[in-house]
Amino acid sequence: MTKEGIRKPAWRAFQLLHQAGDQKLNVSVTPSPASAQTAVTAFATTVSGGGGRPLHGLQIFTSNFWPSSGASANPRTPVTTELLVQLRVPPAPPPGIETEETDESKDNEYEEQSEGLGLGLLPISCFLWRIDDNSTAPAAAWRAMGSPGYLSPTQLEALAEASQMVSEELTVGKDGTISFSLPPYGVGVLRFDGTKSPYQ
User: Which parts of the chain fold into alpha helices (H)?
Assistant: First the structure.
């Protein structure tokens, strides 16, 4: 954070981590082709106490970093990477009592999955929050102002706005896949629990 109270990208990254759940899930990252090396890392969390909803509070954290010069004997520069996320949900147990299923309920089944996030169910959408050079970038906004040494109230307001994270809604395929790109030194967090920002 600057002395004027402008949140830097690193501050936003800790803000993202502060919102992580208390249950960590198994995540594997497979480059394409499989023999290639990747700068992408990922982990996922949920919130305990979800009962029959194993995806309660699900978040998937991704980053695209190689060690930079001075931090490694083998520094590299990451490249923009297309990510394909595959969700795997525990299957639902056999029902104790069979109920009659109408054609209408079959049609609505997929739409209702976004509410429960329970056993055997997949969400239909999620929200991607980014930190990269194209978003959450108050330094770029400051340079665009001419790098002023003293900031007016209007400029401070503009920089505070530029430091905010914004989300984009992504569709989850019926096979549980989500795709998005991650630029060099970018961070992306997928959230599955609504549109309201937890990052104010």
Answer: 9-18, 103-116, 138-144, 153-162
| pLDDT at residue number 112 | 36
In CATH, the number for domain 9-90+102-135+167-191 is 2.60.40.1180
- Find out whether 34 and 149 touch, Cβ atoms under 8 Å: no
Amino acid identity at 50: G
Q: Which residues contact 110 (CB under 8 A, 6 or more apart)?
A: 124, 174
- Residue boundaries of the structural domains of the chain: 9-90+102-135+167-191
- pLDDT tens-digit profile of 109-125? 333 343 445 445 677 88
Asked if residues 125 and 114 have their Cβ atoms less than 8 Å apart, the reply is yes
pLDDT at 7 over 80: yes
- Residue burial 49-84, b: 16+ Cβ < 10 Å; e: rest: ebeebbbbbbbbbbbbebeeeeeeeeeeebeebebe
The owner of tokens 């104790």 is 96
